[in-house]
Amino acid sequence: MQIHVLLEPDQTPDQLTRLALLCEQVGISTMWLQNYVACRDPFMALVPAALATRRVRLGVCVVSPWEMHPVKMANSLLTLHEYSSGRAGLVIGGGGEWPARLGIEVVKRVRAVREAIELVRRGCSGQALTYQGELYKVYGYRPKFGIGGGIEQPPLVYTGANQPQMLRATVPAADGVMYSDMTRRLIATTVTRTGHWWRNKGDGAIIASTISGPGISSRTRRLRDVKPAGNYCAGLAGQLVPGIFSECRRMRRGPAAEACILSGIP
After folding, report:
1. Which residues on adjacent β-strands are paired with residue 209?
2. Residue 243's CB: how many other CB atoms inside 10 A?
3. H/E segment holding residue 245
4. Which residue has the higher pLDDT, 156 or 255?
5. DSSP secondary structure code for residue 64 in this structure
6. Residue 165 CB: number of other CB atoms within 10 A?
7. C-alpha distance across the termini of the chain, in Å
8. What is the pLDDT of residues 166-212, one digit of tens each?
9. What interhelical angle do 70-83 and 109-123 show, nearest 10?
10. Residue pLDDT, tens place only, 76-133
11. Hey, CA dihedral for 118, 120, 125, 127, is it positive or negative?
12. Which of the residue ranges 119-128, 155-164, 167-176, 227-236 has the most confident prediction, judged by mean pLDDT?
């Protein structure tokens, strides 16, 4: 099992760098930074950490297509991918505080997220892209950075989804799915649905993002002890994560339960 850490966006770039180095030292797979309205730009805030580390993956979650056009998402993601020498990731979703805080009326939420994922993944592939979706379009998009020149793999693009319609539409288009705010009784159904919609795709990973529970692993105790900013302590989700891993193991051809995200708590 790989372990990911999810941080609140109240760290300075220097603090994020220190945390990323610590994550790398103790074997954390990925350090994710959340994306809120009145906080630092998460892509830019992770650049110093990208330059200072060599192994830990660095990701931004969650970005919606109402705050940032998918082409700008691709540019930002590829820039972080270039600075990190191929270790960047992004979660695209349709929720969060952005539409309400910006006074945006959300229309065709599911289609917008699906098109954003498709456009970003294809745009980060290294191939020229003309994309003509219903909501988003781009013609002749081919950035000459972030892929190639020693960076062989494109950045990972996940969907942030829990509900059936969003899972059905976006899981086949993404590299993985990040769950959040899920009740225990929905675990089996949600994982089964995810596996069904991945069946023809052939691969994918589930990340279980939850509010942390009682057990604290030995890896995360060290993160808690450092406390450079005081509000990022990580704990294992005692109720949801075991159930998600159990459901993934039960399914012979289902998705891989790649990682458990450890959410920031006071």
Report:
1. 261
2. 18
3. helix 240-250
4. 156
5. -
6. 10
7. 25
8. 999 999 999 988 887 666 677 778 878 787 776 666 566 666 554 33
9. 40
10. 999 999 999 999 999 999 977 899 999 999 999 999 999 999 999 999 999 999 999 9
11. positive
12. 119-128
Closest CA to 146 of 88, 92, 91, 90: 88
Q: What is the 3-state secondary structure (H, E, C) of 109-158?
A: HHHHHHHHHHHHHHHCCCCCEEEECCCCEEEEECCCCCCECCECCCCEEE
Tokens 């589930």, located at residue: 206
Q: How far is CA 10 from CA 113, 230, 237, in A?
A: 26, 10, 22
Cα radius of gyration (the chain): 18
Token pair of 187, please? 């675990």
- Beta-carbon count within 10 A of 234 CB: 25
| Cut 0.90: pTM above it | no
Measured CA distances, 123 to 113, 140, 165, 185 (Å): 15, 10, 25, 37
Cis amide leading into 71 (omega within 30): no
Distance CA 34, CA 29 (A): 16
Phi and psi, residue 127, nearest 5°: -105, 150
Query: Please, what's the b/e burial string for 127-136 (b: 16 or more CB within 10 A of its CB; e: otherwise)?
Result: eebebeeeeb
| Sign, CA torsion 23/243/264/94 | positive
Rounded CA-CA distance 13/248 in Å is 36
